[in-house]
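Table S2 (text version). Query chain:
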Amino acid sequence: MVTELKEQIIETSLILFEKYGFHGVSVNQIVQVSGTSKGGFYHHFQSKDELLFVIHDYFISYVLTQAEEAIVSSIFPTVKLQKIIKSFVTVFDLYKAHISVFYQESTYLKPKYEEIIKQKRQNYRDLIFDVIQEGIELGEFRPELSVDIIGMSIIGMVNWSYKWYKKDGEKSIEEIADMYVDFILHSLLTGKTKQNPVFQPYFLHNRLSSST
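Corresponding structure-token output:
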């Protein structure tokens, strides 16, 4: 299938880019290692530069779509933020290799591709900021907190997961995501909001209490 060939090329390039760097890998190497052909490569990608863009775009588009779905499918800002954080954290398991290449090789993105990625990242930040602002206005989140500082703190904290997360680590990605949710919501929610039964399952101590 066409999609399988495209995925095969991407997976091979991820391995090669991680090992040798973007400029250390040629299209010929990608074709040879992936067992495809130049015709197959150029059917899916105009160039190696476009391939690098697609790798970057995969996980950014994923978290952006997940955030948009969280916003339209939920009423409470707390629920929206919980879903956004969960999907944000799990992306480091789903697209770990993509993200490693992103941070390692992002400086080599061509300007036209870099602009697209920057815009999607800005859109993602705006969605998170909007949810926090909405939570403050509706009285779910603490009003004395800065939307920008809290928003960037969440993004920065979760982003750093790529540095230390390991698939075979002590905690699964789902457990790590639950810890992030617990930590962030405990810091962000008002005392009254924390008592809302709708949000109780988001706090780890409540889960432990209900299981004993």
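Notes on Table S2: The CA atoms of residues 168 and 174 lie 13 Å apart. The chain has a mean pLDDT of 91.
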